[in-house]
Write a structure and sequence with these properties.
The chain is of the alpha/beta class and 560 residues long. It has 20 helices and 21 strands. The strands form four sheets. It has a six-stranded mixed sheet with strand order 1-5-4-2-3-6, with helices on both faces. A hairpin with a 5-residue loop joins β10 and β11. α11 runs parallel beside α16 and α13 packs parallel to α14. It starts with a helix and ends in a 5-residue tail after the last helix. The model has no long low-confidence stretch (mean pLDDT 96).
Length: 560
Amino acid sequence: MYQEEYKRWLEADLEDADLNPELTKIAGNEEEIKDRFAVALKFGTAGLRGVLGAGTNRMNIYVVRQATQGLANWVKTQGGTQTVAISYDSRLKSDVFAKTAAGVLAANGIKVRIYDALMPVPALSFATRYYNCNAGVMVTASHNPAKYNGYKAYGPDGCQMTDDAAAIVYAEIQKTDVLTGAKYISFAEGVEKGLIQFVGDDCKNALYEAIESRQVRPGLCKSAGLKLVYSPLNGSGLVPVTRVLKDIGITDITIVPEQEYPNGYFTTCSYPNPEIFEALELGLNLAKETGADLMLATDPDADRVGIAMKCPDGSYELVSGNEVGVLLLDYICAGRMEKGTMPENPVAVKSIVSTPLADAVAAHYGVELRNVLTGFKWIGDQIAQLEEAGEVDRFIFGFEESYGYLAGPYVRDKDAVIGSMLICEMAAYYRSIGSSLKQRMEEIYAEYGRYLNKIDSFEFPGLSGMDKMAGIMQGLRENPLTEVAGHKVVSVTDYQKPEETGLPAANVLIYKLEGGATVIVRPSGTEPKIKIYYTTLGKDLAEAESQKEKLAEALKPIMK
């Protein structure tokens, strides 16, 4: 079958000039043809993600058209405004895919609101809500390497699409021939017909106002003298992040020159992910040169932010997503209580794989902390529930350990723009009282205990990778662990049993061990990886690290 599909593509009059040479080049190469045509990219709640190239298992204009026709078929059944918002980041072909999607929607009689230049995930979520859209599309592969691109679909609430809606869209995609099945008109024709319009300045300004209204101590940054080094990692964060920081009074910003402007090749770091040292290395060097208080980086679609903080001895230390989440939760709670802006019965939300240190901090401030499944849409879902009950102001903060933060209900996905603003405000505040982020983190550990959170990832590439992952998870369920590295398993929570967890089913196992440590095993939703999350609690860092190493060593053989 895949040979036939390959032949059909080879003989078709393809509009993208990059695709034909690739198809010609792989002629006679069974493995390469199979890799591109044996399967199609699957559309799930995170939409599509894949390597750029020719074929059904690649990201190209035809796969984008097919996916968008599926989305259009669903939108047509939804009533409402019959409008879809679109944004895109700096990845290769992101603008082309965004305009392609707009052309398909317009051909189906659906109105489009598209940004006139690259803008991040939170801007897409905001525009979807602002224009009362039926759906939103963000063209991005988040922090994947340069050869990837993707297509995230959003529901009318500005949250990533629900499982039910995604399943309907996927069924419609499967009915649509990838090369010929989508209706399509050119972007220019869509504009001429008035079906495609650009996002207005009113919407852009409303987003900035919504973000800036969430300052904890307004005006503080104007006089705090914070020195910042910032890297947008060649992505979409540059304009919105610098605009908001300047608006709140942070003007001493040095931008990493090699990573300043959009560049989908990400030539300075093969993996533009602010969670890893390589992506922050240029910024760290610049921070040392300039003596900056803080180094901050946002990923290409600007929904995640990573930082390095200056320590009292002048060195710089990378801060984990869990630590930033805890620092922000602590700062927001203390600051809002001091300013009298804390709502009654405040609610914070985090994912089940994020640090239990946040539970302790929330309890200290009398904040209800809700734990939800991994994926920011579940945090968005909690905001939606509060909104339905007329209590949306109770939501003060949500975070995931994977560097995603949100403080406010104006969007329903993680937002590196507000994350950057609050991190800078927090650093400026501690600087203004003669403290630092590092000092506050140590105070938190002294108060609540030395928590350590680490993640190990195990990759399972190739077509058989998913089967292998499924086999490992099945094995853990059929032969439950009774101990890990000599620590007795006190309880196992299987999130595939909603009747026990009270949450929707998810492929996650959580082991609580004697002595307080926790081990979580979870296959990634977007990549062929199984992640193991460790939380250990020691009297100091060395003890917590030693315990983590022993647990990791004991679990390695299971991942083979």
